Amino acid sequence: MDKALYLAMSGGVQTMNAQAIHANNLANVNTTGFRSDFEQARSMQVYGDYYPSRVYAMTENPATRYTQGDMIQTDRNLDVAISGDGFMTVYDEMGQEAYTRAGDLQINAAGQLVTGRGLPVAGVGGPIFLPPVDNINIMADGSISVVPQGGAANEVAVINQIKLVNPDPQNLRKGQDGLIHTRDGQFLEADLNVQLVSGFIEGSNVNAVEEMTHIMNLARRFEMNVKMMDTVRENANSSARILQRTA
């Protein structure tokens, strides 16, 4: 009975972990550039000082879905979306390079180009700072052209270029910060073949109906594990009563 109880208990815990993954996906269904996570469960033995006679189901997050989300037209000059494969380079909270598909860009009070979350966007030579401008455009290759404040319409200057990369998905992982990082910790070189589309942002690639279906299925699975624990308890109580009568 203790084996069945352990299986049911561990199954319930791991089912809740799976629920957390799908709930996070669903919560970010409207987050710009969000990449949804997969979850899977596998049987694991419990190792200790004696023979491994116990098993449990372990939930793990083996990969992230990198398919493209819907393109949403905004007609805003600072909104960009990547056409096809690739990522924009930003600096995370530790100042290290990370990668994202969120192209809802802003210019902060210091004149620095940042994402909607306030993360600095990386140019080919470092962070991107812009002078006061009357107009700004981001080209398909990531080049940033501006008309300086007070300048004529034909006084166009190229300030910098957003660093665009196209890594092998097998070398990528999504961190707790929601950004994409390389598994080997190496920084990526710029890829001139990655193209931006100005005036658009990319939505998340979360399928809300699919996530809701998974959540409902996991809820039923959790109830099944709880019922199994109740059954084991009832059987143990019945066995105890039988032993008391025969004693």
UniProtKB/TrEMBL annotation:
Q: Where is the Flagellar basal-body/hook protein C-terminal domain?
A: 198-241
* Keyword Nucleotide-binding set for record: no
Q: Which Pfam families match?
A: Flg_bb_rod (PF00460), Flg_bbr_C (PF06429), LlgE_F_G_D1 (PF22692)
The UniProt entry's GO biological process terms, in alphabetical order, are:
bacterial-type flagellum-dependent swarming motility
Domain Flagellar basal body rod protein N-terminal residue range list: 5-35
InterPro entries associated with the record: Flag_bb_rod_N, Flagellar_FlgE/F/G, Flg_bb/hook_C_dom, FlgE/F/G-like, FlgF, LlgE_F_G-like_D1
Q: Name one GO cellular component term.
A: bacterial-type flagellum basal body, rod
Question: What SUPFAM superfamilies is this protein classified in?
Answer: Flagellar hook protein flgE (SSF117143)
Key word Ion transport present in the record?
no
Q: Any idea which UniProt keywords this protein has? A: Bacterial flagellum, Cell projection, Cilium, Flagellum
Q: Which residues form the Flagellar hook protein FlgE/F/G-like D1 domain?
A: 81-146
Query: Where can this protein be found?
Result: Bacterial flagellum basal body
> Record's family?
Belongs to the flagella basal body rod proteins family.
Q: What do we know about how this protein assembles, alone or with others?
A: The basal body constitutes a major portion of the flagellar organelle and consists of five rings (E,L,P,S, and M) mounted on a central rod. The rod consists of about 26 subunits of FlgG in the distal portion, and FlgB, FlgC and FlgF are thought to build up the proximal portion of the rod with about 6 subunits each.
The name under which this protein is listed is Flagellar basal-body rod protein FlgF
From what organism does this protein derive? Marinomonas posidonica (strain CECT 7376 / NCIMB 14433 / IVIA-Po-181)
